[in-house]
Specification:
four-stranded mixed beta sheet, 3 helices
Length: about 130
């Protein structure tokens, strides 16, 4: 990841360091999949969602998932739960994807492939 002049514009909406009071948790099964790049992307998505959600973000967790019939398909899945309706969720998802897309212009081709293959996120309403 480069630190060009665009980086200041592409900072997550919430820039404070994560601490034990933050909502993002990693399930134990994610340990072997975590890399500095993957952690930075997941934290970027999380902190951006936190900043854009108007205090509606209620939980955030990362789990590992693999399709049973596909070799080498294991992914890190970030699930964000918000106290909002599907309209708010659609806008929040869009806004996060726009910011990730802008930031991804600074990534190497390998990082873009890693993101596309290994990192997913979903936003769900608190009350289904």
């Amino acid at each position: 990841m480069s630190s060009g002049s665009k980086s200041a514009q592409l900072a997550p909406i919430v820039e404070q360091a994560l601490d034990e009071n933050d909502l993002l948790t990693f399930a134990p099964e994610t340990k072997g999949l975590r890399t500095q790049f993957r952690d930075s992307v997941l934290n970027y998505i999380y902190k951006t969602a936190l900043g854009l959600s108007d205090d509606r973000l209620k939980s955030a967790s990362v789990s590992a998932w693999s399709a049973p019939d596909e070799e080498d398909s294991i992914t890190l899945d970030l699930t964000l739960t918000v106290d909002a309706d599907w309209g708010f969720i659609a806008k929040l998802s869009h806004d996060i994807l726009v910011r990730v897309s802008e930031w991804s212009r600074e990534w190497t081709e390998e990082e873009r492939e890693d993101y596309g293959r290994r990192i997913y996120f979903a936003i769900l309403p608190l009350n289904l």
